[in-house]
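Write out this protein's structure.
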Amino acid sequence: MDTKITLAFDSKVIAKAKAFAKQNQISLSRLTEYIYSQLTSEDFKTLEDLPIADWIDQVEEGEAEYIRTTDKSSSKKKEFFESRR
């Protein structure tokens, strides 16, 4: 069952998120739901525990290299979005 909520974000962030969602053929609501589902799928205690935190630190220091692969996370994402249609 879907529940409505009201959130406030910087307008530039929303514009970019809408473009990203459109490019991936999903709604901004489903994109946001997916992100929250990923955040709550593990037992993270702090923001620093999130898997992306280490990568962000590396990007900030110029050490990270982003390589896009087709792994189980992409199939997990596909499964999630198909279940919501």
